[in-house]
Write a structure and sequence with these properties.
Elements (H helix, E strand, L loop, with lengths): L5 E6 L6 E6 L7 E4 H5 L7 H23 L3 E16 L2 E16 L3 H14 L1 H5 L13
Antiparallel strand pairs: 1-2, 2-3, 4-5
Helix pairs in contact: 2-3
């Protein structure tokens, strides 16, 4: 399986600094992010928004896959992820992620859809990653 890459650069201190994000596909290319968009409201992106997008995207794909594999016709799965960033005693922390999903699926009842939705919550790769993957750090000082 491929290894996906992205990079970030930050310049300056937290409050007045800013940074850029890039992905290997170049879909995010010199995308701006800053503290204003993270802790208040701003016009750039932020890590929590990107985690939300990744989680909602992964969850929607995984749910559609599980339903399709079992013979259901999936017209659409729409998911919104609400990533909660809170200031705790230990510092800023993502305390929860709410996934709100709506499926348009032929031939399934409400209870069965709910069962698939719950199984996917813990089964999608991003959900798994957010529960504690091994993180390997390679740090160098320039």
């Amino acid at each position: 399986m491929p290894i996906r890459k992205a990079n970030a650069q930050w310049k300056g201190d937290l409050k007045s600094g800013n940074g850029t994000l890039n992905t290997e596909t170049k879909l995010l290319n010199e995308t701006l992010y800053d503290a204003g968009s993270r802790f208040e409201s701003g016009k750039t992106t932020n890590p929590e928004e990107l985690i939300g997008a990744a989680h909602a995207g992964c969850y929607s794909m995984a749910l559609a896959n599980a339903l399709s594999k079992d013979g259901f016709k999936v017209n659409s799965i729409d998911t919104e992820a609400k990533v909660h960033l809170e200031k705790l005693e230990s510092g800023f922390t993502i305390t929860k992620i709410e996934l709100d999903t709506v499926g348009e699926v032929a031939g399934i009842d409400k209870d069965k859809f709910q069962k698939y939705a719950e199984q996917t919550k813990t089964g999608c790769p991003v959900s798994k990653a957010l529960t504690g993957p091994m993180i390997i750090l390679n740090a160098k000082l320039k």
